[in-house]
Amino acid sequence: MTTLIMPSNHNSIKTRFTYRFARSLKKLNKNRPASQSMKETYRRYHMIRVASYASMASAVGPKRAWSRAVLWKIRNRTLHRTLMKKSRIHALRTRKVSGNPNDLRKLVPGGEGMDFSRLLNETAHYIKCLRTQVQIMKNIVDHCSN
Amino acid sequence: MLRCAQSTTSSPEKYAVMGMDMSVLERQRTVLQRLYQQQQQQQQQHSWQPQEANMNPMFHQNMSNLQPAKYDQCLDEINLPSFAIYGREQQQRIGFACPELTSASHSAVSNNSSMTKHDHQISSSAFKREGTVSNSTRKRKAEFDAEEDCKDKGTEREAGEVQSEITVKTDRETSTNNSSKESIQKPDYIHVRARRGQATDSHSLAERARREKISKKMKYLQDLVPGCNKVTGKAGMLDEIINYVQSLQKQVEFLSMKLATLNPRLDFSIDDFFAKEIPAYIASFPTQLQDTNPTNLQYNPLQQGAISCGVDIAMNPSQMLPQKEGSSSVPTTEVFHDSSSGHQAQMLPTWDSEWQNLFSVGFH
């Protein structure tokens, strides 16, 4: 049934994101173990976060540089796992904001090799997509908690 | 020079009369003949140069100026060292032959010395010529570049004039055909005009265009990021943008954490979501048709919803216009979802309110 519905709403990023994210959540829940340890929740959190980013990027498609970067990062996750951990620790330590465009480059995925005007363009689109992502996730959380 | 010239002209006769060692003399003769030929070539070249310059002064000026210089350089590079080597060899050989030929050795040595002098003179004159030629070519190149610049500027001015003429025409006639023509004639490059007092270099023009582009995008981002309107300055705006992106990413982290902790109920709710998503999409499908052509209103049973949808569309273009620069897909989704939520509220009263709000909450 769902596959029949998809093409009618093919244009909207929001529906595609919702569909993909819900599907991935379902898949994650299927594989959910019975134990509810702290480590397990953290692992689940990480997986859900990655799933949300991946579904957003795949909903946007390969037109945008940031979505391409996100998808590439997720696909080559195993290669970059240690690097990502290190960078995350580093980012947590030095999360001090100054008006440097290089900080924005680090925040927007795939922004390292762009010129400044294109970086701004990608940032605008990324902000929009993040907004919709946050909104939909919030709605899902609200629905689930009630 | 005089003595040298005498030696060059009378040397074969001298040697023939004196009856010296013929091998050495023959070598010297050949060397002198080569020297003579070289002189003649140089003279010929110098005679060629003005002719060529006169033949095609407009078109191949630069080329004709460059060619003799190249010839001279080539000759100097190739011939002069070889001659110098010949001279040295001859000196050595004559030096070896000197004890046998005491009477002729002086003349031979003097000949050799004159030859070497001749070499030096030729080389120095050649260098002088080369220097003058290169200087002249440099000057002419500079002139040529200046002319090219002038021509470019002239063409730019002409293009500007043409554009202004076109705009004047369109203003006068105000027809659709002319505007389409103008759009066709519009060039691919960005046309930048310098105001009074601004630099007209290509670099500064490009830099100015880039800055304008960046400021336009910053303005757009300023509209997008809340609380960014009050901040002035590029650094402050970048600060705000970075903060906003970080906060959004943190929100995503937080929400995914919440979802991870909420897992026991999630299973059923997602099943519910999949079950109830379908009628929502089906209900929202005709509204999409109405977005494209409003004549379908009568075929649709959901006329009230359609009217509300039309209101949404009428309201939204003001929001859509600035957003079209960044992405064309996001504003359309918002329109679509606003309309679909209205439909769901009317058509499906049994619809789960939360899943209905999943799309409609928090739009602007």
SSE blueprint:
The complex is a heterodimer of chains A (146) and B (364).
Chain A: H1 2-5, H2 13-30, H3 38-60, H4 65-75, H5 77-93, H6 101-107, H7 116-145
Helix pairs in contact in A: 2-3, 2-7, 3-4
Chain B: H1 2-18, H2 22-55, H3 61-97, H4 102-173, H5 176-185, H6 202-224, H7 234-261, H8 263-292, H9 303-315, H10 317-323, H11 329-347, H12 353-360
Q: Can you describe this structure?
A:
Chain A is mostly helical and 146 residues long. Chain A has seven helices and no strands. Chain A has one domain. Helices cover 75% and strands 0% of the residues of chain A. The N terminus of chain A is likely disordered. Chain B folds into three domains: 156 residues, no CATH class; 53 residues; 96 residues, no CATH class. The longest helix of chain B has 72 residues. Classes of the chains: A mainly alpha (146), B mainly alpha (364). The interface between A and B is large, with 64 and 68 residues.
